[in-house]
Each structure stands twice: as C-alpha cells, then as structure tokens.
Queue: 4 jobs
Job 1
Amino acid sequence: MHTWHKEAEKQWDERAEWWHQSSEEMWERGSRKTIIPFVTTYMRKDGYIADIGCGDGYGSYKLCEQGYRVIGLDLSSEMIELAKKQRPHEHLHFQQADVMNLPFPDETFAGAMIINCLEWTEQPLAALEEVRRVLKTNAYVCVGILGPTAAPRVNSYRRLYGEAVICNTMMPWEFEQLAKENGFTLIAEEGVYKRGVDGSFLQQLSTELKQAVSFMWLFMLQKK
C-alpha cells in the first residue's frame, strides 16, 4: 500500500496543473456541476466538512460559498499548493493527507465529500473505514464513484497486461454494497451522464441499468 500511494501521490503531483486548467469547467458546467446542489439538499452545516481528495480545492470553495466550514484534504502536495491559491475564506482550510491515514481524532467531522478518490486507493474498504472513523455518528457523506463510461478508467487498463496500476475499477453497485456492509445507510443517489444520453430513456431503466451507463454515480450515505 505504501508503494501504491507513493506512486499515486507522484502521478497526481504531475497532473496537478493539467487538472487545475479544467477544474472550474467541471464544477461549474461539466460533470461535477450537480454535486454541490446534491450535497446541500441533505448535508447540514454544523461543524466542519472534510473534502477528501479535494484536488485543487475548487469544490471545497464552492461548498464554503454555500455556508459550510470546509477542510480540503489531498494526497498530492502540488494539488494542495494550488488549493491554497483559492479565494481566501476564514472557514476554508487545506492540508496534505492520505485517506488511508487521516490526521484527525475519531468523530471529528460533521460530514464529508469524497469525489473520485476511493477508486485511487489500493484498499477501498480500509479507506472507507478510515472515513467512517473521523465522521461523527449520523453524519452524512457524499461519495462520487466513476461509472463504466468514464474515460479515466483507462488508468486501470494496463492491469490486463499484469502491470502495476493505481486505479481500482470499482463499479457503483460494488461500492454501494461495500458501504452498506460496513456501517453506512444509503440515503439518496443520482447519476451523472455523458452528453447525448437521452434523459427520457433513462427514466425507463432500473437503478442498476442507470448506473451501467453512468459517467459518475453520486451516493449520499449516513454513518450508522
């Protein structure tokens, strides 16, 4: 795991500037534009929210704009440096941290947002358990898991050649089952789809089939 996460840190350091160039577009008009409204529908504004895998901090800032107190956490030191350049706010802070070993006492956070982060861990269950540890009882967490149509899944393709990769191709339904079996209750869920997907057609599908054609699947979970 140490090797996996050190390599993940290195690769995201290298990608930080590239990610930063498209971050605003993703959160304002692209694949992440529905996340903040989804969070605000369910998550209260008591205490601090952890944005785990915050990247360059744009999503953290948008949460803060909605009245949340936020601590953005990311494995990449380069991402955190970019995040610290976000518009200053007294209730917005950033620090480097690995989701596998969060530097906070038990039951620190009133909620969490984790978007496309758990797929980049070697042991997603251990990461989920660490998230659960730092959440207060009954706290909500919004988790975004890449769907089967997401282009970033090319990051795990080379495993078919027996090569070491740092991306787990975890399906949304797999994560849902993992969460339910390990201390979380599913409160709500919704899909994010590529342009061109017919919304009226989606309404005819079961949740499982909607997940199968999704770009990303959003879960709102509550710690039991």
Note: The chain has one domain: 2-223.
Job 2
Amino acid sequence: MPSVLPLGDPAPADGLLPPQVLDGVDSRKFGLYVHIPFCAVRCGYCDFNTYTATELGGGASQDAYASTAISEVEFAVRAMEASGLPQRPLSTVFFGGGTPTLLPAEDLARILTAAVGHWGLEAGAEVTTEANPDSVTPESLQLLADAGFTRISFGMQSAVPHVLKVLDRTHTPSRVPLVVQWARDAGLAVSLDLIYGTPGESMADWRTSLETALSYGPDHISAYALIVEEGTKLAAQIRRGEVPGIDDDDHAAKYELADQLISAAGLDWYEVSNWSRTPEQACKHNLAYWRGDDWWGIGPGAHSHMGGVRWWNVKHPTAYANRLGSGVSPAAGRETLDAGTREVERIMLEARLGTGLQVDALDKVGRHAVAGLIADSLVEPGAAFQGRLVLTLKGRLLADAVVRRILPD
C-alpha cells in the first residue's frame, strides 16, 4: 500500500503561508515537483503514493489528471501571491511518480507549459521527467524535448532478468539502450537509476548491471540500496521465506563496487547515491532539496517546502481532485520547522554532499568530533583542514553514524 502521510497541523483551506516564509526568500531558489501517481503495475518493493488503473475511478482518471494538476498550479500562484511571496522563476522542474510517461507526452507538456506561463524559467533551468523504459517512444521523447524538458531519468534498476522479475519491473533489458539513444536523439540529458541488494542478486549480477549501464554512456547515475518497506509485497515475501532477506554487508560491498566502476568510467559522486559526468550534470532539482530551497509539490501526496514551512497533499487522487474542484487547498497537513530542527536537517543533508559542509558552521560538539572522524578515516583530512567536512568512501557507507557524531547536543 502507498506510504502513510506524516502527522501535522491543519493546513488552511486558502493555502496561505505564514509570514516567516518571506525571511530570506531572495536567497532561495524556487522549484516545482509534479507527482504523476499512475503505474501500469505496482512494483513489489515500492511504497510510493501510486495507483494502477484498476484502483482508480471518477475524477481520478488519467485522462483528467493534467487539467487537475494545472488547477493546482493556478492555486499555488494565487496562494503564493496572497502570502506576499515575490514572483520567482522556476530553477528546476521535476516530474516524478509513479510513471509520469504513462500520461501522454502532450499532457506532460500542457502541465509544464502552464507552470512556465505563470512563473517563467531561469536561464539554463533543468526540467526532468522520470520514465520507465517501456513507456516512451522516439516521438514522445521528441515532443517532451520540444516542450522544454531537458533531462530524463530512466528506471533501469537492473540489467539482469531474474533481478527485474523479483522487483516486478516490466521492461526487458534490451529496451534500455534503445530508449537512451532515442532520448539523446531528442537532445535530452540521460540519467539511469539502479537498485542494488535485491534478494537473489549476486555480486556478478550487480557488476553486470553496472557495466551495462555505464556502456550506454549516461550523463548521470543513481544507485540506491533496496529498502524493504513494511506493507509491500516484497516485505511479505521475505517474511514468508519466499525470497532471502536484506544483508547490510552485501549492500556495503555492492556500494563499493558501484563507486569503483562508476568513478573509473569518469563520473564523480556528488551525493552519497548519485554520480554525474560533470558538476553541471548533477541533478539540480535534488540538490535544491538537499540545500533547503523552496519548492511547491503538485499532485496527490506531494510534499512542498517554503522557508521552513512544509506541507503535504491528501493522498488519494479522487480526494485531491475533489478539493481542487471545490477551490480549496489539497493540503492534508503542514508543519513549521523551528530553527533547531532546520539546523539538524541542514547538517544531515549537506553532510551527504560531495561538496560537504562547513566545519565552522557546526556547534562546539560537532567541531570537536571532526578530529575523531579523521582518525577513523570517515572524512577527508585535506578537506577538513581547509574547513569542510567531506565523507570518504568509508564515511559514505557510515554516513548516518557520521551525522550522529556531529549533530548538536
């Protein structure tokens, strides 16, 4: 089942934001996330807020979704203006899901055109959509590029059929090089998403997936350890003993292999799970999350953030459509982060970046911990002596433990 929304305070029906969102607004970039909640098949490991066609009805149909999403864009414009926020062009736009490309390319283009028509785009802005390899054609990719998309992230996950079967992925491995070439022909930058640690995946399987992905020459690779979420099909299979469980040592060994092969292919890590061929090809949208910029999340279950205020929409597409149809905010709840919480989140996120975080921005406890982290080979000594805390390979494997040692008391 889709993941559970967090608890929070009631969100106002008019969408108005508190005055604190104006503090420092000129120093923060503004992005847009558009959630497309549709999938052809629910993958066994996934707990995202997604739905197959058989689970939907009424105003939640895929045919009507673009118009509903555009109505939230228009609601966001009014709410931000009424809250006193200045007009800012979009620095990034990201269509995620679900499988955004289950919608016709024309519908994705309509949503993007509406958003850009209201807010505009920064020069060089990044506009990404996620896609499954079996959900695009040369024609649909060209239409997306013509509409202003600049980048596509394909959910490759693995190059090994038996691993894809465990993950319930529907594409065949031979489809991936085709869609990569089609995307390049359309002028789109290409990212490939991989998952490691799937039950039954050997080290040789993982090497095959890495080498295969790298042979396509992507601009960017994301490699994520499989996390077994409660309530998913995969969790039930593991509990019943139908497939083996997850092994932390296996995950660590596979991460080390990923870093070795991806780095040797000329891509550098810029976040623990992400590598890009050049700094300019790092995912700017995800960097905006990790650096605490502002973004509005469009769609059921989508999360938003403005100046330390975070809110999230109702989960079900029918409830989402009904609220917007009634002219009220689709937000289910929100929270206002205090200064201490924002500082903890900043440290947690910036510590995972290849650029690291400033040592002198840590409190006394954090600064005193740095020497021990160097001694334990968890942070780069050269960077630390220059005032930045940057994780070593060992530190990336133990990133959560590093963060615990530098957090304020």
Note: Residues 379 and 392 are 5 Å apart (CA to CA).
Job 3
Amino acid sequence: MVERQCESFQTQKQTTYIAMSKASLVITMSMVVMGTMVMAFPPNYGEALTKSILFYEGQRSGKLPPSQRMTWRKDSALRDGSDKHMDMVGGYYDAGDNVKFHFPMAFTTTMLAWSVVEFGDLMDSELKNALNAVRWGSDYFLKATKYSPEMIVAQVGDPVLDHDCWERPEDMDTARTTYFITQQKPGSEVSAEIAAALAASSIAFQKIDATYSKTLLDRAYKVFEFANKYRGSYNYSIGEAACPFYCDHNGYQDELIWAASWIYKASKSAYYWDFVKANIQSMGGNIVEFGWDSKYAGINVLVSQWVMADAYNANPFIPNANIFVCSLLPNAPIKSVSYTKGGLMYKPGEQSNIQHPTALSFLSIVYARYMHAAKKQVQCGNEAVDPSRLINLAKTQVDYILGNNPLGMSYMVGYGAKYPEKIHHRGSTMPSVEVYPKHIGCRDGDQYFKSAAPNINILTGALVGGPAQDDSFQDSRYNVGQSEPTTYLNAPFVGVLAYFNKPTIQF
C-alpha cells in the first residue's frame, strides 16, 4: 500500500447554531460568487465539537483507560520502546496506519493545547475531554524526552513494514522500531515541535493542575535547549523512517522560533522573546503557510497577541500576519489559496486538502479575536478587513466541511446524514477484537480493505482528506489522499468548532 507524507488528516465536532445577523447574510451570500451553496439546515457545532474530540480516542496507542468511549478500540502496542529498553507505550497513531510519527503528533498536541488555551472557555462540558486529548499527547512526550539532553525519541514503528500490512493495531506484529535523535544525530524540527507541544500544554493545564503544568514547562526548557544547541534535520538522522512519509521540507528554523514563542508565552522569560526577535528576520520560507511542516503564519499570529499594541516590537509580526490575512481573500491580488466552485479553500497539487481550511480557519479566528480586542482592521489593498470578515470566512469553511457543499456530504465521519463510509483506516475496516478475538495477520486484513461494504467500525469525528478541486469526492479506501483521516487535520478544527459553538464576535 502506498501511503503517506500528506496521507492523512482529521476529524472534528460541533454543536449549537447561532442565527446569522443581516450583515452576516450579506457577507455569506457574497460567497455565492465562488459557488457556495445555501444550507438547508444549520450545522450543529456542539455535536461536531464533541465528535471531533472523540476521534482522538480512536487514535490512541497503548493501555486504554476505563473511561475509553471509542469502545471498539482496545489496548495495543504495549511493548513499544522495549527494543531500546525504554517505556514508549502511549501516544497517538497519526492516521490510518499504526506508526507513531512524533513530528506531526507533536504539532497535533500543540494545536489541541492551543485550542484549549484560546477557546477552552467556550467548550462547556467538552473542556474535560479536550484536556484529556491534550494530556494523552503531553504525557507521551514526557516519556519521549525523558533522556534529554542525551536522546529524544523521534518515532516508534517501522513505517515501510507497517504500510505493507493491513492489520488492526491490536494485532501488530511488524517491527516497532524506536528511532531517536542524539547530539551526534540531531533533529531540531521534531525536538523543537515537541518543546512547543510541552509549553503549550503547560499553559492549558496552568489553572487546573499547576504541578503538572510546571513539569511540562520545565521539560520544554530542556528540550528546546537540545533542539537549539544540536542543530540538524531528522531527515538525515533517522533517514527512511522519516522520509518520504513526514519529511521536513521547510527546515527547522521555523520550529525553533515557534517553540521559543510558546515557551515565552508560558514563562514570560525574556530569553525566549529575545530568541524570537533575533531570529525572526532571518527566517526563510513562505510567511502565509501553516501546518505540521510550516509554522510561519502560526508564529506571527501567536506573537501578535502581545505585540498588537506595541509599535516597537510589532514588526515584522503584525505586517506578516496582515499579509497572511490578505492572502486568504478570494479576490486578493496575492493569494495563498484558491477556492473550489463550492467555496472550499484549496491548494492544488497536495493531498488531504482539508488540512488547509482547518488550520487556516483556526488562525483566522484567533487573529480576528486579537484584532477585535485591539480595535484593529487590516488593510488589503483598497479593502479594509475587519474581524467579522475573517470570522465569516472561517465559517464558510466549517460549514462546507460539515455538509454545505455541492455533494451535501459531511467530511466528518459520523456527523450528518451523509459522510464517508469507506475511509482509509485499518482499525475502522476490521472487526473489533471484542467481536473477533482471533489474530488477524499482516495480509489477512486485505479482504476487509478490498471489501465494497462500508467500514465495520465508525471512527466518529474523524476528518478525511476531503474533496478534489472540482468538489468531487471518491469514498474509497484506495483513494488515500481523499479518504484517510489524520490527527493533525482535526486538531485545529477542535478550536474552530469550539468558537462557533459560542461565537464572541458578531458578523
């Protein structure tokens, strides 16, 4: 089976509907120029939020707790790390496979934590479940960094052997190789992203568990020091285990600045703010990109919170964040995305496109809130963009994903009347251990992969890669780019759904 790098993506959830004002209707109808359909029924953002968080229980690796709600999943990979006499049990499988890729997993944890930090007060009863999702990742990264500064675990599971099999995670008999980075074989992008995840998680837990929060931040300091002092890419240090699956294409400088920004936000230590300011001007890359491999736009939006009213430190963060905003507008002279006729943000040439509207919508809402608090607008050529415009733009993306699209299909599994049923996900396709306790070997699962029937288990809340540029969608396990879910697809969507559950800016 050929899978990866952009092979997967996410899921998410939503509840309450807030009736749109006349102004919002005018803005929304203007999107009809791009072909956006008028929804027959408003989406339930609260329900979608609940399901988007539940999805993470379906991706858990390790010993499952008594509170596990995705009950068709069972304990798996209980000996991870044993090849190096370590305990690496836990964490998340990134997508429809059974590998624990730490680079995208760390980004997922960072974004889940940011969702809680930014929107936790809007999550109601789901805040507890969101924090549990964050902690499943942060606990695991405490294990992965236990031996720093001498060693940090960068991945668990041989991806080539894993992708040659179609079997339940509970049955895995492929090599669970532990890949690690050291001073001699560094991996600054993955270690810095782990540092960011630990720092962001420490903020999420500050008011709930101060001791745990301090533990996370103390570890973030050490991991950042390792990432910064021993510079190099994990592309070369762990070789074929990283590439071509999750190669770092943008270098590690953005992850170092991203991590320093999060540690400064968590600690207010001048050292990290000085690091950000000293390095931001020399950072290469595209300032409008954001995702598991590119942190550029995320850095500027994150930092903008504390420099919005600070003329001395605003440059280049605010100008760059403003460029990001302008690049999303359908009629902008400089665009970072195109739009399908149905109205979905699209980046041609990439698989699992839904990663872009979820991540970019998250940043749009966060920046809109910062703008609103500072009473700011963004000037895009001759057009003044206020916070409500950004919120509405994000809403068109959320509503498309949840079913307001030419196919009338929700791209969140288990949400709505029509959603993908043949997703590219091993555990979802095969009977649960509870139903079929016998071992299903490496190629024994092929019959389930090739079946024309819907998947046996519903991976509730999972976002799939989504439609093609012409708004078409092939509900097929063979179409990995469209039908595979991943953890990093869902992570920003959790925050987006929490916002629309209780929007604070009227539009």
Note: Residues 14-501 form a domain with the Glycosyltransferase fold (CATH 1.50.10.10).
Job 4
Amino acid sequence: MATPVRPTEKAGSAPRSGREPGRWAGLAARLRPRATFARHALLALVALVVVVLLLELTGPFRNSQFATMSYYAIAAAGLTVLTGLNGQISLGHGALMAVGAYTAGLLLPAGIPLLVVLVIAAGVTAVVGVIVGAAASRLKGPYLAGATLAFAVAVPGLAIHFDEALGGEQGLAVPSPRAPEWFADAVYFLSANETSSAKYLAYVGWTVAIVAFLLLANLAASRIGRIWRAVRDDEVAAELAGIRLSPVRVLAFTVSAACAGLAGGVLGVVVRLAAPTGFTIVLSISLLTAVVLGGLGSLFGAVLGSALLVFLPPAVTNLGASAGLSDVQSAQLAPFVYGAVLILVILLAPGGVVGTVRARWHARTTAPAEAPEERTGRS
C-alpha cells in the first residue's frame, strides 16, 4: 500500500523527517564563524554596539543605572564560573569586591591610569582568591558556603580596624576619572550628544564587562572549562580520569575572585566610595540570587540577573508610590516582589531564565518526527 501524501507535500517528494531548518537559520549557520574565539568576538562587537545605542538613547539617570549594572554583571559572571561551571557555592563575593574597591581607592589618588588600576585590583583580589580557595578547596556544599560567609563577614571589619589607611566606617573616597577629550569628541561626532560623567562611567564599566565576558566565554569553551564541568557533574569520575580536584577548584575560585575584584574596582569608581556598609552579606546573596535567576552556567544569564537587580526594585518602588503607598511602604515592597520573583523562578523555571528557555528550545528543535507507520495507520 502506498504511503499517503500529506497536503503540504508534493507528490513524488520524499517525506519530511523532523524539523527542517528555515532559510534564514541555514544562512546564519553558514555566515557564523567556525572558530570559537571569532564567534565570541563577533558577539562582543554586537554587545558593544547595543551598549552604545542604549547609552546614547537614554538620559543621565539610566546611564547611572547601566553603570551600576555593569559591575553587577562582571561579579555575577565570575560567580557563574564558580557556581555554574565548577559547582562551588560562594557567599563571600561581596568581600572580594571590597578588596577590588579599596585597591582602586588606594591607587587612583596616586595618578595611576584607570585601566592599570582595574587590572591591579583584579590581580590583588585573585591573590586573595588563591588563599581563600586553597583553604576552602576541601570543603563543599554548606561547609563551603559557611566558610565563604565567614569571610564575607570578616573582611568589612578590616576597614574599621585599619581606619587610618582605609577610612574606617566613613569609607575611602575613590576619585572618579573624567572623560578624555578625544572620547568626548568621538561620542559627539557619532551621536551629537555630550558625554556626562555618568555616561562615561557606564562606557568604562561596560567596556570592561564585555572584555571580561569575552575572556570568560573562551575560557569556558576551552579544556579548562570542560574540566570544570566534569568536576561539577561527577567528582569520582573526574578523579578516575586523572583530574586533581583541589587545583581545579582553586583555579575556578581564583578566576571568579579576579572578576569580583574587577567589579569592585568599577564599583568604587562609579560610586566614588569604598565603605564597609557597601559590602555586606546582602551584596553576596544578591549576586548569588542574580546567578540563580538568570541561569546557572550561563554568562548571558548573569546579565539578565544583574538587570533584575538594578531595574526591578526602582520599578516596583515607583509602582507602589503611584498606587498611593507611602515612601517607606514602597521601599519595603521592592524586596518582597524581588523575593516573590525568585520563588516563582525556582518553582517554574529551576534552570533560571536562560536555562529554561534553552531547554524548551532544545526539546522543540529535537522533537522526534512521527513514524511513517503511525501516519499510515491513522490514515
């Protein structure tokens, strides 16, 4: 018996098996660079264009919010490497950001260029990360979280103890650099807009963030990234394969700490202050929350989680004020809504926003086609 032909298929043509890629998808696949670094560099270039458009089309207040989002994104990306790729839980990244911020506050008044200061801040925090990571490399689960929590509680107290050098409870003032004339002229030539201080700091933060994301993306796609995933998925199998767990964990913690120090340096420049009250345990928990919301193991998820951290509380506060609530009630409504969003994401999207979307897209594109016998039997 001949197989019946569907109305959408021409007679004599072979039956379709599965979902065929569309014309545009095939064209995109042909145009996409084959080299991993080239693909990531192309994405970084696209991200830079998006950043320029957003900063030039928004006002000073939004520019300051984007500047804040930049250092959250850098720190969340480093935590994504540690927690999402290597499986280590850290509640001490706020303290690591404090190390970077205070380093920037100590070096910038000496006249050292901003880029050099940020690199030194990342390096100093990486050294701290080696020490903390080596001490915590034998711990896992709640024990590791408890050790990093103790670190997060202890570090801000050092600023109070060494108040002469670090400013004590008042904090250490961090000078904010001005936009160079060539940069302001280039921005005016491209967009006919003046370069405010908030806009320049947002450009600095997001340029640093894009470079950090480019390096992390290539590192995650390399052999080191595959080793991190192997340790995360099955420690016993990784050891049987010849992987030494302790150095791998220390390396992951060091890379994550360097990102936190870099984010702390950007934070100090944007906020113009490095104070103990800015690096409490709340900051560490917020970073971990951003990673969970965006999606563990996804750098783009770190960006989404950072956006929620920055834009959701003010939006909820404004909605509460427009609904007739007092200023205090509106301010208290923001953390409640944020917690509710976190619970909903955990219940409805355990893999985070990016992880859930990716899983559903994979399930949709790899759905098995109907067997010819089943189609014949129904007809």
Note: The longest strand covers residues 172-173.
